[in-house]
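Protocol step 4 of 5: obtain the predicted structure for the target chain.
Materials: sequence only (see below). No template structures provided, no constraints applied. The aim of this step is simply to have a reference model before the mutagenesis design in step 5. Sequence pasted as it appears in the construct record:
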Amino acid sequence: MIVKPDAENLAAAAKAAGKRGLPPVHLWNPEFCGDLDMRIARDGTWFYLGTPIGRKELVRLFSTIIRRDGDDYFLVTPVEKVGITVEDAPFVAVDFEPEGTGEDQVLTFETNVGDAVVAGPDHPIRVVRDPETGEPSPYVLVRRNLEALIDRKSFYRLVEIGAHEDVDGESWFGLWSSGQFFPVIPSADLP
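Step 4 output (structure tokens):
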């Protein structure tokens, strides 16, 4: 018998599954139970049945069981898998702390759900530019294939500590973290 998914049952299963750190959602392969009327807005607000979820603890709990398969997002427990809508990225990097300078710099990001992520080879930074406006959308990989959109205020702060480096014979403006340079924009495209 398949039970129609709802947020309360999902939260209880997530809590039980994740008592020690992040649950191993990548190892779970339950049957797909359908889509849940849950949405993560571009600003990181989680909605259930069209209403913002106001309890931070509940949002944090749900954030530990999210998984991306291809272009689709799911909340997964050992016994159920439900589809949700993600407008951009499932997380938002709301702040960061730089340590060191230049090639020795380390950038540690904090997400809206309380994750801390050190940018580097395992957690790269990437920037996508809107083809029409050129507006940048910066991201940092949080875990597996789940990214955080870096919020505007943090991105402006990052630009202040950026550097120009040669990448494959072309000058790029970008960021150093954990010994890796992350290109943001060709230097020639800067005003």
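Step 4 remarks: The radius of gyration is 18 Å. The chain has a mean pLDDT of 91.
Proceed to step 5.
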